[in-house]
Amino acid sequence: MFRWETWLILLPLCFNHCRGTCSVGAYADSRGPAKAYDDHNYHHGCVDLMRRQVQNEFSAAMQYLLMSAHFARDDISLDGVAKLFSEHADEEREHGKKLLEYLQMRGDAETSASGLSFSPMLDKRTWADAEEALRDALDMEKKVSGSIKKLVDVCENFNAPDYHAADWLAGQWLEEQLKGQRKLAGLINSLNTFRRDHEELADWMFSNQLLHEE
Ligand code: FE
Predict the structure, then answer these.
(1) Which of 40, 52, 62, 191 is the right S-S partner for 120, CB 3.0 to 4.6 Å?
(2) What is the pTM of this model?
(3) Average per-residue pLDDT in the chain?
(4) How many helices (H) and strands (E) does the chain have?
């Protein structure tokens, strides 16, 4: 049987033991957590701009969703045009996710807490016709291409350039942007040619054509 004096001795021992166990904590190594990035290949200015690009991609996705919702309205019912913009919204969302994954691969620790805010890129909810929306889409894509170009400049031109990020952005992203711009410009011009003298019929036929495209 322990006497109360024995507890007085054992309690501080137990307390010290518990504190000892807890103080081992997450990083037993005094060097702290290991970092994926290295100073030779990582530039904070480049990464900051890439984070802002995530914002651009999701803001473009939101704007395309509003375009899609507009043309899917029962009193407009250009379902093919709605489908086109819905696909664009999916693409932009995928771009945002891909950029986030890239930043995480590079060891960006602030990605999820960088205070990004998202709102529709053009803050626009209605369009007079499909051509107006397509022209807005083309303007938006050119804006995004411009911001990627600026991003490549920043990633390449600092004293400690991040060639991997610059190459990835210029090779994969700009290529896709430029192809997208070509497709939208072609659609605008085809629709414009159709619309001469029979605008509503042209919009309906154009939309049906898009509806059945893979
Ligand atoms: Fe994009």
Answers:
(1) 62
(2) 0.78
(3) 85
(4) 7, 0
